[in-house]
Design goal:
Length: about 140
């Protein structure tokens, strides 16, 4: 549905958020895959419930999510990311976030690449602050 929705909603997608769960491999290896599944369900629920108006959430990989935003302004995306971070802080889990606005006459794929780059920068900053142990992600 992710690829279908990109094609069908190309004219209305104004922003993209890239989300990567921290420490899923550590959870799976040390607490079991059921614990990893529960972590993913918790994170998925938070993303679905707090991604904001106009956001559609997709799990695109093991611990990776993309949120496609339709007809929203940048402040709506940054507010949604703040809300998702706040809800995550109430759990034992964390995620790195990055977002990008789709440029006028730009490709959604370019926005996804930019959002991914920002997400990896966020993850590196979280590691530098000690929020993610260096050997656990």
């Amino acid at each position: 549905s992710y690829y279908h929705d990109i094609q069908m909603g190309a004219k209305t997608i104004t922003g993209v958020a890239s989300v990567d769960m921290n420490e899923l491999k550590y959870i799976n290896d040390n607490m079991g895959h059921q614990a990893g599944d529960e972590a993913l369900q918790t994170i998925g629920s938070i993303l679905l419930n707090h991604s904001g108006h106009g956001g559609n959430v997709y799990r695109t990989g093991g611990d990776e999510f993309i949120i496609l935003y339709h007809n929203v302004k940048e402040t709506e995306i940054t507010d949604a990311i703040a809300a998702m971070r706040q809800k995550l802080s109430e759990t034992p889990y964390s995620c790195a976030f990055g977002y990008s606005m789709v440029k006028k006459d730009g490709a959604i794929s370019e926005a996804i690449v930019e959002a991914d780059g920002k997400m990896y920068k966020d993850k590196a900053e979280m590691k530098a602050r000690g929020e993610i142990p260096h050997n656990r992600d």
